[in-house]
Amino acid sequence: MADPRTDRGPLALFVLGKPPSSSSIFPEVFALLGHRGVRVEVCLPHDGQAPPPPEQVSLVVHRGLRPDALGVVERLAAAGVPAVDPVPAVRLLRRHQRLEERLARAGLPVPPSRPVPTWADVLVDAREEQRVVKRRRRGRGRGAEVVAGRAGDLPPEPPFPGPYVTQPFVPNDGLDRKLYVVGDRVAGLLKPSPLVGGHVETGRPFDVPAPLQELALAAARTCRLDLAGVDVVLGPDGPVLVDVNAFPGYRGVPGAPQALADLVADRVGTRR
């Protein structure tokens, strides 16, 4: 019997947290894959959609799923469908302290963090030095639920639910080096730190020097990610990792749609 995954071309299933917008990289990625003979379907489990049977799917790519919706990807993976990124890796990223412990064990530069149960304890912890405060378990949005300051600068009431982790603030030039990994490729954008100027959507492309490329790839490999956003600041002693995300937005990242299409085509065996 012919393999149902390949009789009409391999199927790449994109399981997404929301419909792909026209301003995202998805329309271009889907078009590039179509030119290579890769069929694309989108599944939106948050809207109640169910995926095709596993035997019809060659690869599942997922982004922006709530923890309960990750079960859709887990069931496909359990049936033998390769996943980008692996679900255990994505679940790890939702827990800041565990993520930072893994990076530190790999010898990568991360600020030391400590768990703090309540906001009152955060204010005590920040009495003597400026601290970065994160929710211990990642909540809404990427880059949300993070604040920095001394006790007198922080709000008296919790700005987001606990428990928390705190880290020493790394003095830097106010710019985040946003490093975007697709497989073994790295591109970069410079963005103002959200701790200084709030969240911004766009950044300025820059040539990523070799040491930062190596750092981004090492962080992605340590977290077992094919698609990763690695945030770095340049501290007094060199680059420091301040966050890692799975499947970042890639908006405005040079070459990102082509790189993602290449990776998917490689995984399903149709790259040209």
From TrEMBL:
Residue span(s) of domain ATP-grasp fold RimK-type: 206-252
Q: Mind telling me which InterPro entries this protein's record contains? A: ATP-grasp_RimK-type
User: What domain of life is recorded for the organism?
Assistant: Bacteria
**Protein name, UniProt field:** ATP-grasp fold RimK-type domain-containing protein
Species this protein is from: Serinicoccus chungangensis
Upper taxonomic lineage: Bacteria, Bacillati, Actinomycetota, Actinomycetes, Micrococcales
